[in-house]
Amino acid sequence: MCAQYSHLIDLNDYPIQWWDKVISLGASIYAHPQRYVQACAGKIMATLFYEPSTRTQMSFQSAMIRLGGSIIGFDNPMSSSVSKGENIKDTTKVVSSYSDILIIRHPMAGTAKAAALTAECPVVNAGDGGHLHPTQTLTDLLTLKMEKGRLDHLTIGLCGDLLYGRTVHSLCKALSCYAENKFVLISTPELQVPDYITKMLRESGCEYRVETSLDKAISDLDVLYMTRIQRERFLSEADYLAQKDVYRLTADKMCHAKPDLAVLHPLPRVDEIEIAVDDDPRALYFKQAQYGMYVRMALILRLLESEKPAPLLKGECNPALKCVNPKCITAQESYLPRQFTVVGGKTVCEFCEERALPLSDAVK
Ligand code: NCD
After folding, report:
1. Ligand 1 pocket test: which of 55, 56, 137 has the largest number of ligand atoms within 8 Å of its C-beta?
2. Residue 29: its H or E element
3. The whole model's pTM is what?
4. pLDDT digits (tens, 9 = 90+) for 239-280
5. C-alpha to C-alpha distance for 27 and 33, rounded to whole angstroms
6. How far is the CA of 268 from the centre of ligand 1 (A)?
7. 227 to 74, 157, 246, 353: CA distances (angstroms)
8. How far, in whole angstroms, is CA 120 from its chain's centroid?
9. pLDDT given at position 2
10. Which atom of ligand 1 is nearest to the CA of 228?
11. Which residues share a beta bridge with 185?
12. By C-alpha distance, which of 281, 259, 322, 295 is closest to 136?
């Protein structure tokens, strides 16, 4: 196990002061990009994208190029040895030995952590299935810091696919750590946040309410975080079609919002925000995508220089338990340790945070 590297798997592996440092470095780079043009000269970043991406992949790549470094990688795993059946361990072990930092996106939850176990450089989670997306959260935090001037005392509405939207999960986990934030979780009953998120909100003492109507909630909000319905994560097309047009932010709805509302969206947008909203000065999603590049420059610098790695695994290996999540990387890669922690009295998988059951019950 290579614990000596500083990986970014989940923002909550680090103290809030660490995030604040990355965010303020991102703001300095935004203000003075020319000071950093040689900061990563001679360094190589690898991007392994097993799932489609525009912003995350290209903002990471442009971030490294703007720091004076170089990039390698794939965004079509079928053009690599993955098509020959290579596992995550072997691909990432080898690619990490060619590079100084490795950015990975994969459809299975927990993949970045699995890669970090044996990688020979820092690993960054660029999205692991429907689980987490910590660098989108750094992007969102820098956007709020720059545009609202604070990360606390905010009423944040999250709207759309709160079940499968990994950006929502990471953002809730992060914003619950700042004082007096309140959450309005706006979704259909089918697409509410996973239990571990509501449990986490309760445990951190955050006020939250579940709402089905965007019209009802919009006037209370300081931040509205719109999300796409995650078509690729539904079990059937019919289930997706039943959800797809439920929420749409329109110019008309914006008339009922606060004058200083910040509308964020991780993008890509499908049709959950009407194009006319783009002209509203409260629509910050394109600016947000640009901040993403600066905060990723800051993150690369921080991980390359960091001397104090966050611990990768905190719980215990228990071969008698099994994760119940079929979309967890442990269901695909059988060599991974059966690693579990106890959260709020429940035993959960350390890779995807879903429930664990005794092996005998799980296979029934
Ligand atoms: C998000 C993602 O991939 O989770 N996009 C992004 O990284 N900016 C959101 C989405 O795909 O809907």
Report:
1. 56
2. helix 16-31
3. 0.96
4. 999 999 999 999 999 999 999 999 999 999 999 999 999 999
5. 10
6. 6
7. 26, 11, 12, 22
8. 23
9. 45
10. 12
11. 158, 210
12. 295
